[in-house]
């Protein structure tokens, strides 16, 4: 049996079912598969197999079953045999699972011997992916190997009727990991109950770095404005929203709008951060997500988290324990060294994290889950591929991930952050090496982005294997096609910030037609020369100057508070083509409009200007601006000029920025729908995929879904594989997987 079959209570389940059906033989983990040798009455064997395949434990996912008939050797009983080390067939790794209801009940029951024990787990819950060092998933191959089970735990482990029967991470107060509270210089604070003391510290307004499943969080009281401001100052994070963890669903419902789909996600055993709209009467301090209508919220997912909420705390800031842009910290001594300047205290434990993973982030669109960041609980992500050869796809640069194929399946790694940051790059390389060893991966082809300056491309160069450069936007398009199992030709609408095109210009407002194997660019936004390189990305007012200069607009007083001499310098550089690049990026057009409306002139996190522009728009405004589409050498182009003139005229007439923002979004939707229809007619295609980071914009996405549906066009968009650059690696894999036949 192949699939997610280890660490999910499958062998104990098989053992119990074998006894029910009077089956003799054995079951064992082999590599990452579960192997059985069974004997019994024919009908009983059939029913037994049906039972264990059709109704496995809730966490198991059976992907493939192979059956071989052999002679009976007369087994006298059914037993669980020790694991066999060999790796056979598909390799599967289990995901980390939030605490189950039974374990939760146990830690809150004063009569239980696991009362208030922060590492309680069973076959249905607990860490998996973040603690495994090698396959198969057995205690000695995880970071739990240093905690020999006490006689009581051993008894549970060996008792088929116990829910901890063969629970590899089983432990208790006597034998398992323990908590310690440390100062921010790493000295232990001796106290009877580190957890209780932590609660007191949090209520007193302190920042505590707390070690969880995939790494550290900075925790502080989300009702305390002062400490949130301090955390922002120390973390050098003035604007970007903090995620919060709330006591329970009831608390969550008081603060945010939670529909059925959102509720399901909040309480799911993956426990992601769910983006939710704040209620009008939400009384949380604005410092958590300044001026934003939405907030990222999650429910407690470890026993430790649940215990933090037992004594007066209802709502905690729980933000990744890292320095700005650096990877999440997950080792005690490193965390104290690197985060000691931010946290006042550290609540640590002695169960090592082997593979760090941040919290996953999801949202709901049209009542369905859309994953923005795949990490803890969602990793690894597994999907079918042809995969004749083993392929390693290295992704892009910001929001990096990697993926690989093996034995007919693709695997996507956890989110690994912006690898322009040196530490993140090291973590990225380590994560690749780690999985490579664990899965015995020997890639024949290494896929990478065409952009040679991306560190993922630099890494590709250093690797043994055939290299294949993949165009960034084609990879976005195919990421969506892989997710929806699309093999036929489609129209691709790919809007993002940056990606190098085949003409060496920066693309990002693209319309393709194509398949997984190849694509043709049939339309794009008109190129504009942007001056200032990376500095312009950080300072959208520079982008506005570049756009406005290109349409000969000279009234610079609209950019409030921007020094006229700085504007002149940008203009002069534009005239002389100094440090300029041409781009068709829709991401940059968003930056331009946000700057013109004085919503954001300088950003402190990725895509801030676009996020804030969407956040202020008035959803009741239905109008848009006029736009123009022209054709040059068989290529459609969208001229942004009339859109900008429409905005500038509205500004002169003092139309509210909220209306202008809405009209801009509507226009972008209208022109895109118009373009898709023209392409659909010309190339006789009725399927469109919408992909790229810009489609994280809910308003634009839903506007287009509605508009295209009315035009009778079938639309696909990224749901499980992120639409942002962390989905790129899957697209690269899909492309190489499709063309490998031709290699
Ligand atoms: Zn449990
Ligand atoms: Zn024990
Ligand atoms: Zn991109």
Task: Give a quick set of tags describing it.
743 residues; alpha/beta; DHBP synthase; Nucleotidyltransferase, domain 5; 4 domains; 11-stranded mixed sheet; 7-stranded mixed sheet; 22 helices; 21% strand; globular; binds zinc ion
Explain this structure.
The protein starts with a strand and ends with a helix. It is α/β, with parallel strands linked by helices. The protein is globular. It folds into four domains: 1-169, DHBP synthase; 179-361, Alpha-Beta Complex (DHBP synthase); 381-487 and 726-742, Nucleotidyltransferase, domain 5 (2-Layer Sandwich), CATH 3.30.420; 492-720, Nucleotidyltransferase, domain 5. Helix 13 (472-483) crosses helix 22. The strands form six sheets. Strands 6, 7, 8, 9, 10, 11, 12, 13, 14, 15 and 16 form an eleven-stranded mixed beta sheet that branches. It has a seven-stranded mixed beta sheet with strand order 28-29-25-24-23-30-31, with helices on both faces. It has 22 helices and 31 strands. Bound molecules: zinc ion (3 copies).
């Amino acid at each position: 049996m192949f699939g997610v079959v280890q660490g999910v209570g499958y062998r104990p389940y098989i053992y119990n079912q074998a006894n029910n059906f009077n089956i003799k033989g054995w079951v064992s983990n082999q590599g990452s598969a579960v192997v059985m040798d069974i004997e019994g009455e024919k009908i009983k064997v059939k029913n037994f197999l049906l039972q264990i395949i059709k109704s496995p434990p809730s966490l198991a996912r059976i992907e493939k079953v192979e059956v071989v008939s052999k002679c009976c050797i007369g087994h006298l009983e059914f037993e669980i045999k020790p694991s066999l080390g060999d790796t056979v067939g598909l390799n599967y790794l289990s995901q980390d699972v939030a605490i189950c209801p039974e374990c939760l009940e146990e830690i809150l029951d004063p009569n239980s011997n696991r009362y208030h024990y922060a590492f309680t787990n069973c076959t249905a819950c607990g860490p998996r992916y973040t603690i495994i060092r090698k396959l198969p998933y057995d205690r000695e191959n995880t970071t739990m190997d240093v905690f020999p089970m006490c006689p009581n735990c051993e008894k549970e482990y060996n008792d088929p009727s116990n829910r901890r029967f063969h629970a590899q991470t089983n432990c208790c107060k006597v034998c398992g990991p323990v908590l310690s509270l440390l100062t921010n210089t790493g000295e232990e604070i001796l106290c009877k109950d580190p957890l209780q003391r932590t609660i007191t510290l949090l209520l007193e307004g302190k920042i505590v770095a707390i070690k969880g499943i995939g790494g550290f969080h900075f925790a502080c009281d989300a009702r305390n404005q002062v400490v949130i401001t301090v955390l922002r100052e120390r973390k050098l994070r003035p604007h970007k929203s903090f995620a919060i963890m709330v006591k329970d669903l009831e608390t969550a419902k008081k603060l945010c709008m939670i529909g059925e789909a959102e509720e399901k996600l909040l309480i799911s055993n993956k426990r992601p951060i769910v983006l939710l709209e704040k209620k009008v009467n939400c009384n949380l301090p604005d410092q958590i997500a300044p001026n934003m209508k939405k907030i990222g919220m999650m429910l407690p997912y470890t026993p430790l988290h649940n215990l933090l909420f037992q004594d007066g705390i209802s709502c905690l800031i729980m933000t990744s324990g890292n320095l700005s842009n650096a990877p999440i910290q997950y080792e005690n001594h490193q965390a104290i060294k690197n985060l000691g300047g931010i946290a006042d205290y550290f609540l640590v434990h002695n169960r090592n994290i082997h593979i760090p993973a941040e919290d996953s982030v999801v949202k709901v669109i049209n009542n369905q889950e859309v994953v923005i960041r795949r990490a803890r609980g969602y990793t690894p992500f597994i999907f079918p591929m042809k995969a004749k050869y083993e392929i390693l796809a290295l992704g892009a640069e910001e929001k990096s991930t990697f993926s690989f194929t093996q034995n007919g399946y693709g695997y996507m790694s956890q989110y690994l952050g912006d690898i322009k940051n040196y530490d993140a790059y090291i973590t990225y390389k380590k994560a690749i090496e780690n999985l490579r060893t664990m899965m015995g991966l020997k890639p024949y082809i290494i896929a990478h982005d065409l952009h040679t300056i991306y560190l993922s491309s630099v890494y590709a160069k250093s690797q043994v294997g055939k290299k294949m450069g993949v165009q960034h936007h084609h990879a976005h398009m195919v990421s969506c096609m892989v997710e929806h199992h699309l093999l036929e030709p489609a129209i691709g609408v790919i809007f993002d910030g940056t990606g190098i095109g085949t003409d060496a210009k920066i693309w990002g407002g693209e319309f393709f037609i194509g398949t997984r194997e190849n694509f043709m660019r049939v339309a794009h936004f008109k190129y504009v020369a942007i001056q200032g390189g990376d500095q312009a990305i950080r300072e959208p007012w520079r982008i506005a100057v570049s756009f406005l200069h290109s349409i000969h607009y000279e009234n610079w007083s609209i950019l409030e508070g921007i020094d006229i001499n700085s504007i002149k310098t940008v203009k002069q550089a534009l005239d002389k083509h100094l440090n300029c690049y041409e781009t068709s990026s829709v991401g940059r057009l968003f930056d331009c409009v946000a700057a013109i409306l004085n919503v954001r002139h300088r950003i402190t996190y990725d895509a801030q200007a676009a996020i804030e522009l969407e956040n202020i728009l008035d959803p009741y405004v239905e109008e848009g601006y006029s736009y123009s589409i022209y054709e040059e050498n068989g290529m459609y182009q969208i001229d942004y000029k009339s859109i900008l003139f429409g905005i500038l005229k509205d500004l002169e007439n003092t139309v509210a920025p909220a209306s202008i923002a809405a009209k801009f979004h509507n226009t972008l939707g209208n022109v895109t729908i118009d373009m898709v229809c023209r392409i659909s007619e010309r190339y006789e295609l009725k399927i469109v995929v919408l992909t790229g980071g810009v489609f994280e914009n809910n308003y634009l996405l839903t506007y287009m879904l509605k508009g295209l549906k009315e035009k009778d066009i079938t639309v696909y968009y990224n749901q499980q594989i992120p639409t942002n650059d962390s989905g790129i690696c899957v697209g690269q894999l899909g492309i190489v997987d499709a063309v490998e036949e031709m290699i």
